[in-house]
Specification:
This protein is of the alpha+beta class. It is built from 23 helices and 24 strands. The chain binds adenosine-5'-diphosphate.
């Protein structure tokens, strides 16, 4: 409700009407009294006395109250007076009548004057009133906009908690539209309990005339702070209503709660922190001492709180120095010092401290967080000692050693390098070693600083020396990294390597020549063998025809001679075949035809082929063939290998000594072995056995026949099967030849190189 409304209400409309009526009545009564007086004096008393002074009463009253309308009263009274005087003079104009006219004119003048003055006065009053009302209206608007713009609910209640006014905010909070609050009370929107409490507060404000605050939490859990202020009648000072400003303090409450929780949390952290947390005031008196401080220092909180902190330091002045620095710099970090435990034992601590300030920012003390680093310090000392030892070792090394800091400063240089480069400790490495202002383009410093170990070669033009450098990072106690470089002088080695390189080149050229010669040799052998063999076949045919008598009967001597020629032709044929094989093997051109086959069958066939030869020497071949899987191999060639091994065994066996032939499966491989009890082979001979044309004793070869090619061919064939051939033997105790080949091969025809 606006003040204007209220001021209008103060001037009760009925009261105004009554007052106006009363005024009119008074004026009418006064006029009537004057009329009666005039009639009475003029007609009843018949006198001509002056009594018209009374006429001024209604005139003045009308002038004051009705302003210019007083003229009507003056006209009426003046006319009435003139008329009564005229009538009393028996309807004739006389001096008396003229006087009456004069009085009437004076009435008019007085009425006009009073009416005019009063009218002007009333006008000024009205203007003043209007101005006042305008002012009130403006204030009212300001007040209203203030009340409407606030985030708070604002409302006005009467003594019975009935709403007299409420701002939009509160309307929306209660879900009402403007004007709907009329007739409602606080109790309509709140619980009975809250309504009762609110009524008590309102009552208090009405009675005491003072403000108060009241907190309230609604059913939705929102908190409000209500400020109840009295609205007093400016004239009487009586409380007419109460303004309630209701502030939503839910957020503030939540923050307050969080703050309290944070404080508790912080308190817990401080209490349970592994670091010692202590607070000292500006005089160095301990104010707080957490559990960890108790553990590390050995003092209980109640023993030290309130006492000076100087006793904790080996040097009491240290306490003042720390305090001074903290006050000056605001904080210190990782400051190392030594404190004394309660039992007097010194401990190394690393301390961080900061100034503690009150709410106004005035320093009130220092908060210190310290950590026991005694073990760290001991470790550092150990590392330092080890580092010193290391430097001693470096000093006595035959290689050059130096250490460079992250910023390229030479930190250490050993004797070997000092001899070559002087003592540049403290100088920048690229300055002293390379006469450069900037780091060298080849420098591995940055890589090493990243943790890499680098090995590279450096040639010093100044010393004409070549160094093999190993550069590796070395961690220092303070966490920084130094680059450790080991200089190995490899100038001599380099020269030797160069020499070897040259020789290698020459050798390579010779090998190429040799390969060419070998190839030519193989080609020659292959060609000559082939050419030699060509006439053999017709020769053999002609001799066999002679032997079988197609060209006439021969005598016994002739038959023997032909027999000898044929036998030697067969040997020659074998020799040529062997030479052809070995030359193909050496040239890597031996042809293999892989197919599914049985090793045992190949063994049986070979035995059959060699049986008559064995009989001649009165030898027995014992075969121990176990069941084998079929393998992939060149049956013809493997039979050739087995035959050769059997033939050798027979050749070199002692008379009547049996031979044992065995086959066995070994994992994915097939193993063949043949054991004889003959001459045996020495260790040295074993090594050259599988090389072409290697007969251990050539006289024996001649005795037994043979070319020294059989085992070399056997080796080539077994290698072509991805297998291995070897011998175990002792001189005089016989020999065992083995070969092993994988059961599975690719079925193909291939030319296999010979690995000698
Ligand atoms: P050859 O045709 O001369 O037998 P091999 O290459 O088969 O050629 O054999 C080479 C040499 O290895 C033989 O001359 C012999 O000296 C030796 N040798 C081979 N097998 C045996 C064996 N079972 N006992 C002793 N010596 C052997």
């Amino acid at each position: 409700m606006s003040q204007i409304e209220r001021s209008m209400e103060n001037r009760h409309p009925f009261a105004d009407i009554e007052r106006e009526k009363m005024k009119s009545l008074i004026v009418l009564i006064a006029i009537l009294a004057c009329v009666i007086l005039d009639v009475h004096v003029t007609f009843i008393m018949g006198k001509e006395i002056v009594y018209t002074h009374f006429f001024y009463i209604p005139l003045i009253l009308a002038g004051v109250w009705y302003h210019m309308r007083a003229i009507y009263v003056a006209i009426f009274l003046g006319a009435f007076h003139v008329l009564t005087t005229f009538l009393s003079m028996d309807l004739s104009f006389s001096i008396v009548t003229l006087e009456a006219v004069q009085r009437a004119i004076i009435f008019f003048a007085v009425a006009y004057l009073v009416g005019f003055v009063s009218g002007e006065h009333a006008k000024s009053l009205l203007l003043e009133e209007k101005r006042r009302v305008e002012e009130i209206r403006k204030n009212e608007e300001k007040y209203r906009s203030l009340v409407e713009s606030t985030e708070d609910s604002v409302y006005l209640v009467d003594r019975n908690c009935g709403y007299l006014f409420m701002n939009e905010k509160h309307l929306s909070r209660l879900g009402l539209s403007r004007g709907q609050f009329l007739g409602h009370t606080y109790g309509n929107f709140h619980s009975a309990e809250e309504a009762k409490r609110f009524a008590e507060k309102i009552k208090y404000v009405f009675e005491s005339g003072t403000s108060l605050q009241h907190e309230y939490k609604d059913s939705a859990g929102k908190s409000y702070l209500k400020t109840l202020s009295p609205v007093k009648d400016p004239e009487t000072g009586i409380v007419t209503a109460v303004t309630v400003v209701s502030k939503d303090i839910t957020e503030i409450k939540r923050t307050e709660k969080e703050l309290t929780e944070t404080k508790d949390y912080l308190k817990n952290i401080i209490a349970s922190s592994a670091d010692t947390i202590t607070v000292v005031d500006m005089k160095g008196i301990v104010r707080d001492w957490n559990k960890s401080a108790e553990g590390i220092m050995g003092y209980r909180a109640d023993e030290v709180v309130g006492t000076s902190n100087r006793k904790f330091f080996a040097e009491p002045e240290e306490a003042d120095r720390i305090m001074e620095r903290v006050q000056k710099e605001g904080e210190i970090k990782d400051y190392r010092t030594i404190v004394l435990r309660k039992d007097g034992k010194p401990i190394h601590i690393s301390m961080s401290a900061a100034v503690l300030k009150d709410k106004k920012g005035v320093p009130i003390g220092t908060v210190c967080v310290s950590r026991d680093i005694t073990k760290v310090v001991e470790l550092e000392e150990r590392i330092k000692a080890e580092r010193d030892n290391l430097k001693l070792i470096f000093e006595s090394m035959a290689d050059g050693v130096y250490l460079v800091s992250e910023d390229y400063k030479v930190e250490f240089i050993n004797k070997v390098l000092r001899n070559d480069f002087g003592n540049p400790v403290g100088s920048i490495c690229h300055n002293v070693f390379h006469d450069r202002e900037e780091p060298c383009p080849l420098c591995k410093h940055l890589e090493v600083m990243k943790g890499k170990t680098v090995r590279w070669e450096w040639h010093s033009r100044r010393l004409n020396k070549t160094y093999d450098l190993i550069e590796t990072p070395l961690k220092n106690i303070d966490g920084t990294i130094s680059k450790l470089t080991i200089f190995r002088d490899v100038t001599e080695r380099k020269k030797a390597e160069e020499e070897i390189r040259k020789l290698n080149c020459e050798l390579e050229l010779k090998v190429v020549d040799l390969e060419e010669v070998t190839r030519m040799k193989s080609d020659f052998l292959s060609l000559t063998s082939h050419e030699l063999r060509t006439p053999l076949t017709p020769m053999q045919a002609q001799l066999q025809m002679l032997q079988e008598g197609y060209m006439g009967k021969m005598n016994e001597k002739q038959e023997d001679s032909i027999e000898v020629i044929l036998r030697n032709l067969t040997r020659l044929d074998k020799l040529i075949n062997d030479i052809l094989d070995i030359s193909r093997i050496e040239a890597g051109r031996i042809k293999m035809s892989f197919e599914s086959m049985s090793i045992n069958d190949a063994v049986k066939e070979a035995i059959k082929m060699q049986e008559s030869f064995a009989k001649k020497k009165d030898l027995k071949i014992r075969a121990r063939l176990t069941e084998l899987p079929t393998i992939i191999g060149d049956a013809e060639r493997l039979r050739q290998v087995i035959s050769n091994l059997l033939n050798n065994a027979i050749k070199f066996s002692k008379k009547s000594a049996d031979m044992i032939v065995e086959t066995r499966r070994v994992g994915e491989n097939v193993l063949f072995r043949i054991t004889d009890y003959g001459l045996g082979i020495s260790k040295e001979d074993k090594e050259k056995l599988f090389k072409p044309f290697s007969q251990i004793d050539s006289s024996m070869g001649r005795e037994h026949g043979g070319t020294g090619l059989g085992l070399a061919i056997a080796k080539g064939i077994i290698q072509a099967h991805n297998g291995k051939i070897w011998v175990e033997s002792e001189v005089g105790n016989g020999s065992t030849f083995y070969f092993v080949i994988p059961a599975k091969q690719k079925i193909t025809e291939k030319e296999v190189p010979y690995i000698g």
